[in-house]
Write a structure and sequence with these properties.
Elements: E1 2-7, E2 12-19, E3 26-32, H1 36-49, E4 54-59, H2 69-84, E5 88-93, H3 97-100, H4 102-105, H5 109-118, H6 120-138
Parallel strand pairs: 1-4, 4-5
Antiparallel strand pairs: 1-2, 2-3
Length: 139
């Protein structure tokens, strides 16, 4: 099976890919969110070209375990995505994912802005979400 990992964001959507054989997530990049239809088209193109069987979307549950506004926004994204892709979509708790991206936050503000513009932080978050999914499935 081939997987697409997604870190949803209002400005950028981070992407990663992986498969059952290696069970290793690899960064694919980030989509800059300008036109929602274009975002959906780009994801469909990736799903088709990479023969994706399952999409894993980071789900931002609050630290207290409750569903907040960010998770509700991701739910709407997943609903829209379900309408255009013909593959299974799963949510992956991303509460601890931000810790993995923390190293990028420790960089200078100028360096962080540059990384953010390139979508590196979003891509890394998508890698961590998908890798966490693989690791939990093996356990």
């Amino acid at each position: 099976m081939n997987y697409l990992g997604i870190d949803y964001g209002r400005k950028r959507i981070g992407l990663s890919v992986g498969d059952d054989e290696l069970r290793l997530a690899v960064g694919l990049g980030a989509i800059l969110v300008k036109d929602w239809r274009e975002v959906m088209k780009e994801i469909v193109k990736i799903v088709e070209s990479r023969k994706i069987d399952k999409i894993i979307v980071g789900y931002p549950i609050n630290l207290n375990g409750h569903i907040g506004k960010a998770a509700e926004e991701v739910d709407r994204f997943i609903k829209d995505l379900n309408e255009v892709v013909g593959v299974k979509i799963e949510r992956m708790d991303e509460r601890l994912t931000s810790e993995g991206v923390g190293d990028m936050r420790k960089r200078s503000p100028k360096k962080r802005r540059k990384l953010r513009k390139k979508g590196e932080v979003d891509k890394v978050a998508a890698v961590l979400i998908l890798q966490d999914y693989f690791d939990r499935e093996e356990a």
